Amino acid sequence: MSEAIVKFSIQKLNSLVLQESLVLSGLEDQIQSLITILDVIGGVYSIDFVTEEHYKFESRWFCRLKNIIQNMEDCIDEFIIQMENQSGSDHQTSLIDICRNELEKLKESLVELMNRMSQHKKEKEVKIEDPDTKESSSQAGEAETDETEAPTSPTPIKYYHISIPYYLRSCLMYCAIVPKEYGIAKGRLVRLLVAEGLILEKPGEIPEDIAEEYIKTLVGFGVLVADGTSTTFKVNEGLLEFLLGMMEQEDFIASCTSSDTNISPTTRRLSIHSDAKNIPTNLSSLPIQSLFLFGIGSLSDTEFDCLRPVFHGKKFLRVLDLERVHIKTLPDEVGDLIHLRYLNLNQANLNALPESINNLRNLQSLDVRFNNLKALSSGALNLVKLRHLQMLKHIGVAGVHLPAGIGSLKDLQTLTGIYAGGGIALELGQLTQLRKLGIMDLTEDDVNDVCESVMKMEGLISLSLEAKSSYPVKTLPSIEPFTPPPLLQKLHLEGTLSTLPNWFPLLENLNELRLGFTHLPEDPALVLQFLPNLKHLTLWHAHDAKTMGKEFCGVGGFPKLEVLVIASRVLEEWTELEEGAFPSLKYLHIRNCLKLRMLPEGLQHLTKVQELKLLPLHDELEERLKPDGGVEHYKIKNIPSINYITNSMVQQIAGARPAEGGA
């Protein structure tokens, strides 16, 4: 634990010295001295294997070390804030002297702790090496065991927890912040871990990639559980209660689940659940760095007043997650949160962002999807450290207009929900570091410039192109000539296509594809089944055909496909599947196929299918699939999970809804 928290702190300090070099110009020696001492402390307990005895021993020092490190980081953060507000050289010199003195005191505390830790470790090693001491200790231990008759070995869950490296435990505990009924999306978790500084960076590697490796490792351990599409994660239920207890013990986060929850005055991370009445009365005095609201919904003016201290006094705040909390307006004071790294306003019902948000020079992630924003102001170009910008205009489902000069944001990795007109399409070519791009309202006027720009993004792994909305259909311009980026893993095309682009066979690394409302005249599966790494395929009104046969997937076709989603209002029969088709399929979801009267013969041979969803299901097909005499039940009898709702049930539900303006 101590080694990891020291590495996190050294990483933060080195980053600050690099990014705030002008502001910290008078404190370089003090900060470098602190880094040197921290490096020594990190080596005191650097071991490869953690026993319960070591865990208990190190825990005694962990809280003390963590408190010193937090005070040290607070001191530097406060200094940066104060320097922002001072213009005169005399005042700045005074602030430097004050901060230098504070850091010297903290350095003395670190040195004292380092010496005590080293001495304690030496004494422990001497006791282990002394045969007499070892024997007496062993006898004492046996006597204690005989007297209490309690086992000395840790429970399997506890042992498993303490044996996981601290940086992975931090990642796991972060997953438990979200209420268990929600789960947390992978992208959201990755962005949070990076913003919190809970990633041990490696030279030449992107922090987000390291975060994904952490998640993959925890899933491999079985302590983190993925949903069927591997896009949302939850903590293993058998571990959750224990983990929540450890989070409280280590002061990782405090959760307000009722109005009488007692919140420690030293709380750094805070989550508020279910009701605005659970906002703690001492919120204004808490030194929080991360704040989450879950399941609260709309806030009245009075309830929002209880939240205002966040914007007025939380100068150390790094993470503010208000997803699905309707706050109507974002206070101008948000611009004072200069240490903010992560701001999630997804579905916050905002019509505009305050200009002051452009002061957030440390902001890495901004999520404003599903609001009523039409455009970003030119001030957004001040967000020079922005890595993830996620947008989507809610009303009309249209792209957000960007300011000219967006190409100057060289740290951007994610840029979604944008309108590419007005010269933006060409300017995107400057963002060669982009990894995820989502364009809406794509027109004939811009498609060639978009293609030219995207081909410069050699690291792009996700691309979404949506046609301009128009009645009765929206048509996607021809995406030719085009060569897809070599690392592309996810592709989403939305809008009518006259033919499948001829570059599709080049998508060797593609693992997720959605074709939405493309209404292709020819079956795209004739090409798609040969993509070697495709794992998730959504065909949402992709092909207008009344019948699908065995040509949809030949023997060995779709070799790695695990998730197949099909929606079609015209499909009536899926006649046949050859044995050996879809060798890896686990989840088959059939949506909006209102006329589908037949599931394919050969479905019974897909032995790896774990879940079948039919929403809705034709009433005639329901009769044939029933376990008590249904003539087609044999096709699905070995599938563990089957979910459906019939057409007639859908109509009954729709008929039961009150008329507009009714009670």
UniProtKB/TrEMBL annotation:
Q: Which residues form the Disease resistance R13L4/SHOC-2-like LRR domain?
A: 309-613
Instruction: Note down the stretches annotated as region Disordered.
Output: 121-154
- Biased segments, Basic and acidic residues type: 121-135
Q: Which domain of life is it from?
A: Eukaryota
Q: What does the record give under GO molecular function?
A: nucleotide binding
Keywords per UniProt: Leucine-rich repeat, Nucleotide-binding, Plant defense, Repeat
One annotated GO biological process: defense response
Coiled coil segments of this chain: none
Q: What sequence ranges are listed for the domain Disease resistance N-terminal? A: 5-90
What residue stretches are annotated with the Disease resistance protein winged helix domain?
A: 177-237
Instruction: Output the Pfam families linked to this UniProt entry.
Output: LRR_14, Rx_N, WHD_DRP
Q: Which InterPro entries match?
A: Leu-rich_rpt_typical-subtyp, LRR_dom_sf, LRR_R13L4/SHOC2-like, Rx_N, WHD_DRP
Name this polypeptide is given: Uncharacterized protein
Organism of provenance: Aquilegia coerulea (Rocky mountain columbine)
